[in-house]
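User: I'm writing a short methods note and want a consistent example. For 7TM_GPCR_Srx domain-containing protein, I'll paste the sequence; you return only the structure tokens, no commentary, since I'll be parsing the reply automatically.
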Amino acid sequence: MNNELNTSDFVYGSELQGRGYVTQTDIIFGTFTTATGIVALCGAMLNFYFIKNLKAFHNPFGFFWAVRTVGELGSDIVYAIYTGPITLVQSTSIPPGINIFAYHLAMTFGYIQCLMHWGVSVNRLVAVWFPFYYDRIFNKKLCVIVVIGICLDAFMIVSLYLLFPCNHIGYSPQLHENVFVKCSPEQENSLLTPIIMKACYSIACAGTALINLTTFGKIAYIRITSKVKYNNVQFRRDIRLFIIGVMQDINMVVVIGSIVVYNNEANTSTFAILLSYDGLVFIYILNTFFMTFFNPECRRFLFKTGSKVHTLSYIEPTEGPTTQWTPESQAVTK
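Assistant:
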């Protein structure tokens, strides 16, 4: 009798509805999520501003950075204009399809951003290990192929939800996190989502960590064996960009790791919710912060400091030749 009652009371998408009234906790979470999305969105615009106006980023590294920023935009927009506001409203008539679409939109762009960390790390590895071959390896054709491949991979991953229905995830305004959308009362959780998240964690996080360790090993070797080469301006710039990338990767490992651990978990703590949900966009803010304040080209350009802003044609790998991406180096008098 109880099973029949539960079946008859089942409403698809009920997990995605608001509570009908707003609590103080809803206001805190909703405001924080909306504000985080807006700040991250502004940070993405700042990234594009740097990439467009600084010739130092008219190169493969800047191209990958731009694409990774595009990946960040998907989650930024969803947080700023959808999940944050519906948390503040707590409507009981949210169409499940719209909620699920918002999740898939953010996930598609988030997956692109996730894999672009791997691309940026490989870019830095080649710049440090094979400076003479950097231009030959990272030509325009290869860069475009890599980006297209990553985008297609992201769309293929998300399309699995269409091939294997009843695995959908959506945002719950009441719980302030992504939850499994049941197709029937008997279902417990999504079988597909944990696999996808673990794949992203393994490829983008663990894979990137191994690449960065290899790059660090080469930097340490050069530091010990050749002070002249280590103190080269171009090489130190490569080191600086590598360190910035590592700081961004550490944040990504922590947040995506928390998503894997707490995905579809019941009775998740407030800290776990903030780390596994809002933390994803918060690391996008940190990415912009690291690039802006730990990179002198960006810092000088943003704050107009110094009598001259030296804008190199591209972030050259040590001893590597100039590339076809930009014209020759120039100094802009300020």
